[in-house]
Amino acid sequence: MVPSACWNCVLRPRAAATRALLPPSSSAPRVASAPFHSSAAQYAQPAKKKANTQTMMKHRQSMSIRRKKKKPVDRVRPPPVGERKALKKRIVLSNPNALEIEGMADLSAETMSNPSLRGTIMGLPVDKLDQLRAVEAFKPKQSWSLFRRPSTVFRRSTYEMGRLIDQITGDVEGAQQGKVVKKIVTGPKGSGKTVHLLQAMTMAFIKKWVVITVPDARELVSGDTAYSPIEGTNPTQYVQPNATSTLLSRVVKANQDVLAGLRISQQHPALKGLKPGSTLADLAKLGLQDAAVAWPVFQALWTELNATKAAPGVKDEFQPRPPMLVTLDGLAHWMGESVYRAADYTTIHSHDLVFVNHFLSLLTQGQTLGNGGLVLYATSTSNSPSNYSLEVGLDQLAARQEGVKPSSPEYPQPESYSDADPRVMDLFQASMSKDGLLELQTLSGLTRDETRSYVTYFARSGLLREVVNDQLVGEKWSLSGGGVIGELEKVLRRPQLSRPQVATATA
Amino acid sequence: MPPRFNLCTAQKVISAFRQPPLASPRKLAIHPRFRAAQSTTPLQKRWNSSRNDAEDLPERPKGPSEDPLPDVSEEAAEIDRIMNKEKRCDGQPASPELEQGTPVSEILSRDKEAMKHMPKVMQDQVKKNGGSRSFSTSARSRLPDVQETNAAREDPSIAMVASMIGQATEQAPGLEAERHSGLKFDYPVSPANTKTLNFRKRYDTLQEQFTKMIMEDGKLSRAQKVMASILDQLRTSPAPQVNARRRLLGAPPAPQLPLDPVLYLTLIVDSVAPLFRIRQQKGLTGGGTAVQIPHPLTLRQRRRSAIKWIIDASDKRRDTHVAQRIANELLAVAEGRSGVWERRDQQHKLGIAGRANLGLAPRRR
To answer: What is the ipTM of this complex?
Structure first.
């Protein structure tokens, strides 16, 4: 392209070009106006900034593109308050997809002490399920939701308990009639301690006993419920009104029929609202309405249930009271300091809570239940604080049961400087006198026969798709640590991998 | 020379199977007629070997006084076998020709008519015969038995017939028992999957894959808990109401599904798994536009994309727990309600449209 200016022109500076190179006389825009007026300059549009950003850059400013950060949008609203807990605590007792098992026996008055049914699976009676729910016999982590209807293995221990309950009731001839049997149920994790309690409750309901349960011992000592000192006690005792009220509601819901059939037979001057001639159910309901009187109401109910004859001055004819079943799950929580604090900020020992103390006193010697019955306290392994004093106490109990005398050197004693809780040791000492001996019942794994029927139960419910033979039963029995039923359930519940196929012959 | 086709490979194989169990494996493929003639020289012999002489005895050359013929009773048994036991399909006794096989070349050399109609391959070979071969056949092995076994190994027809007979012998327990005689315990059976026998697997393949895709921050055990909960919910939720347009592939009747949760899960995932992914290939048509090309996926890849879709869809649900969200999404897929099905349809639609572009794609080795 030919340049518009010739070389000569370029080399020789022209007048216009020189003028352009010189700095302008003023930076303000030139406005055609009279020189003595400033308004035009003031009203003029501000000069546009140059587009070149390089000149506008500050020192050490980053050159990269700046994008606005997006705020993370929370898509999902948090679930409503209490929904997660409700989901955790939900108990489902039936799976409509599972197959119905034909010919399965139910636990009943006839079958509960039938030795020929040992080792079979027995269904829980359907009409007792509401009562069992009311006493919180089912726990959320147990796999009731897998099967068509809840059922349990009728183990050797179950059969023995059925016979015992029969004897205490007096249906079967025996020396046990009207006696109190006290047991602590222990065993490794998953060995069926809680289900053992459940079976006891079912049998007690069948026999029309009164069932009083503490489904979780932890709730009483973990600082979850309100507590207040009782005046005039030394050392100071503490009452837990709300927990007592909850206990009363469980008792009323579960034993409505029995309690409604029994009338008051003792004097209760402390309870003003109680009319003469009212039933025990009415008495218990007083504590539901007002938590403040819950503890006196519970004491009154307890005296009524343990009465053997009417007090003088009560007109109604005395109705004999049924035996009682008292169960507790998670004994270890009650064998130490609670998290409650006294007025001087020292921790309160759990035996100073009257609720706890009342139930623990049932273990001590003598006829602690007036009309006989069964006291079953189970330890827990899924949620239990380690408790040295309890361990020693249980060891002593076991030694005592084997015939080791307390004076002999083999009798287990707490180690020196081990800081064993003296109150716990005293409790075990008091419960091990000659009459009304506290027993220790240790649950272990299922036998092979029981395992076989349990495995068959899974297969017949449609949850296990394998041929049940000796090999399979043996394998599952070994995998579950010798038939520990909780482990067995885990092993069987897991979807089975198809076994490696064995080649038939030359391919 | 035309190739030697054996008409009666079966006979050979049968003879191999009929050997007494102690016969050396070398001998197996040789017909009994030739057995006396061969083995004049042992195959391999080390001078310092520790084999005892008693074993070597049958292999030494026989003297003139030693009778090579079988005794009378053995001969009678042999004749009986030929006449009665080894009959052809039509009931006639087997002729030696049929039994021992005749080379096709011999038949052809006798029959000129057959030469005209012989297969084209053979005709070509005859035509080529004048030229030079690519391989040499001049050196003949002095070890006929090795030659034979190689032939038996290479000839697929022999192998096939052998396998047929092997299957047949399963039904003949007598023969099996004869082979395994002298064992104290059962003859060990080699399992089919020898290579993977040492793999210890606890979970189903798909279950494991799904679990690992649920996993976050490497917390596998937590993911396994979630998976267990998902399977429990599949187990306890009511049987799916099957949408006729969106069935699960090859599923048993719906009421049976919840009882086999792993199968249920597998069917759900496999039913929404896409067959291919869409590859965006640039620079095929010029101008920088990408061309969509369907690319086939393996089973695991297909499942992976289906699982990803399901988990993505479940994230938009409002249930409290992960397990509940995923389980509900899975149930929605089973009933044909889920958006995952649309996603799959969309993918397939794109793939069908992109089929035309397959020709543009560069060939991959």
So the answer is: 0.78
